[in-house]
Design goal:
Helices cover 25% and strands 34% of the residues. Strands 4-3-2-5-6-7 form a 6-stranded mixed β-sheet, sandwiched between helices. Strands 1-9-8 form a 3-stranded antiparallel β-sheet. The longest helix has 18 residues. Strand 5, helix 3 and strand 6 form a beta-alpha-beta unit. The protein is of the alpha/beta class. It has 4 helices and 9 strands. The structure holds 1-O-pyrophosphono-5-O-phosphono-alpha-D-ribofuranose. 1-O-pyrophosphono-5-O-phosphono-alpha-D-ribofuranose binds next to strand 2, strand 3, strand 5 and helix 3.
C-alpha cells in the first residue's frame, strides 16, 4: 500500500473478479447486438480497458470527456463537453462506462444528451456507486460496488490528478486533502 493511502477498499484481485463478472453480464445482455462502449474520461479509462476486454464479443468504442462542475467544487448542474464522440450515437445501443457515480449530475445530463441525439438505448455501467450521495434522478444499470461516501483513489480515480495509476481502490488519508 502507498503512503498517502489510509486503507485498501478493493484489491487488484477483487477488482479483476468483479470486472470479469460485469463483462460476462454485459456479453449476455448484449449478445447479437453491436453496442457502442462509451468511456467517460478521464476516470473511467482503466475500468474501460479491463471491462471491454472482459466482454466475449466484438464491441465498438468511443470516448467523451464531460464536466458538470463549474470553477468551484460544487456541481453547477450543467454539463460541459470537453471532448465529444468521434462517431454519431444515433441508432446505437450505448453503454456509458464510468468509474464512479456520485451526485449523478454528470450521468443524468449525459444520458439525456445521448437520448436527444437519437441513441436507441442508453445504459450506464459504473464501477463504484456512492448511492447515498445521489441527488439527480439517475441510476446505474450495472454496478461494480456500492460504497460509502469516502475519498477514494486509484483504478482511474484521482485526487488533484494523482493516484489514477494505483492498481487498487483505496481511501485517501484525510491529511492529504485537508492540508
Ligand atoms: C467524476 C466521475 C464522474 C463524475 C461523478 O469525474 O468520473 O464523471 O465525477 O460525479 P457526479 O455523479 O457527482 O456527477 P470528474 O469530473 O472528477 O473527472 P475525471 O473523471 O476526469 O476525474
Amino acid at each position: 500500500m502507498h503512503n498517502d493511502v489510509e486503507k485498501i477498499l478493493f484489491t487488484e484481485e477483487q477488482i479483476a473478479a468483479r470486472v470479469r463478472a460485469l463483462g460476462a453480464e454485459l456479453s449476455r445482455d448484449y449478445a447479437g447486438k453491436n453496442p457502442l462502449m462509451l468511456c467517460i474520461l478521464k476516470g473511467a479509462f482503466v475500468f474501460f480497458a479491463d471491462l471491454t476486454r472482459a466482454m466475449d464479443m466484438p464491441v465498438a468504442m468511443d470516448f467523451m470527456q464531460v464536466s458538470s462542475y463549474g470553477a468551484g467544487a460544487v456541481s453547477s448542474g450543467n454539463i460541459r463537453i470537453l471532448k465529444d464522440t468521434a462517431v454519431p450515437v444515433a441508432g446505437r445501443d450505448v453503454i456509458i462506462v464510468e468509474d464512479i457515480i456520485d451526485s449523478g449530475n454528470s450521468l443524468y445530463r449525459l444520458k439525456g444528451l445521448l437520448k436527444e441525439r437519437g441513441a436507441s438505448s442508453v445504459k450506464i455501467c459504473a464501477f463504484l456507486d456512492k448511492a447515498s450521495r445521489r441527488t439527480a434522478p439517475v441510476a446505474a444499470d450495472y454496478v461494480g460496488y456500492v460504497i460509502e461516501d469516502a475519498f477514494v483513489v486509484g483504478y482511474g480515480l484521482d485526487y488533484a490528478e494523482k493516484y489514477r495509476n494505483f492498481p487498487y481502490i483505496g481511501i485517501l488519508k484525510r491529511e492529504i486533502y485537508e492540508k
